[in-house]
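REQUEST FORM: STRUCTURE PREDICTION
Request ID: SP-0412
Submitted by: Lab K.M.
Chain count: 1
Length (residues): 354
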Amino acid sequence: MANVTLKNVVKRYDTKTIIANVSLDIKDKEFLVLVGSSGCGKSTILRMIAGLEDITSGEIYIGDTCVNNIHPKDRDIAFVFQSYALYPHMTVYENIAFPLKMRNFKKEEIDKKVKEAAEILNLTEYLNRKPKQLSGGQRQRVALGRAIVRQPKVFLMDEPLSNLDAKLRVQMRSEIKKLHEKLQTTFIYVTHDQTEALTMGDRIVVLDKGVIQQAGKPEEIYYNPENTFVGGFLGSPSMNFINCKVQNGTVTFNEKYIVYLTDEQKSIIGNREDIIVGIRPEKMDVINSNYNFTVPVEISEMLGSEKIVYFNINGSKCSAKVDTQKDFDKEITLQFNTNDFLFFDVETQKRISL
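STATUS: Completed
RESULT:
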């Protein structure tokens, strides 16, 4: 078991900086998720930890050992790829056993470890099958099994569920979390899917353009984003950001709906005249009575037990989660609770707080 530490890690390709001075402490037995859009550098960080990618500068530690110059096979890590990377001519048993055979384990020990891994992953009845005879989820479990038998200090997973259908992804998310609880090993998991990040991680690191935007527990990042990028990236739909004018302690929406700010909120905003108000779609209070803040609905999406409606406020595109039993296809009437407001600086896009 081991913690993983990155100290001022930089990765450049020629003159292009991919990872910009990243420092990160990953605790022993922690399930850490690196999340961000494509090209943000999350997979590059994973590959540098694994030793599959050289670093330009900085240090990477696994436990107390600096692994900058240690070969990948000697870092005591296991890497689970997006593409499964199974040997098609081998059975499930042979695929799981392969890393042990390469390390000259005795036949009896290999058999024991393979069967233990198969039992953990519910693969016992498939040990004699070839990968082509398995479903996508079963193949991914075989890839996990091949990693488990090595009993590594650290598991590295690079978007392992992205090739699965939606239903299977949900199932595999819970299976990987259960696996982490059983093995009590450090997991570092890369995904671009914010739902995976929020549901799986003990802690989330949000990346953009090779820079850590925020790191923290899922609920902390969801409810208290440090900037508009984080608030806009996590959540489905993402946080609403409304450009507003502040006058005499009030904020006006669509030129007629006035919200009076609390004394604390006035202190947060200070003497700013322009701000961005952030509010989650589920916090958009919907009312049925006649009110002076009704906006036309541009489009609505039916999502089973709830409906997402889209509209404009102050020229900003917004959305709200509403009850599917109510008709909001043409217009929606809103009422705000100022306690649900977050404030962001117009220029820096950073959260404004006391």
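NOTES: Residues 187 and 214 are 19 Å apart (CA to CA).
Reviewed by: T.R.
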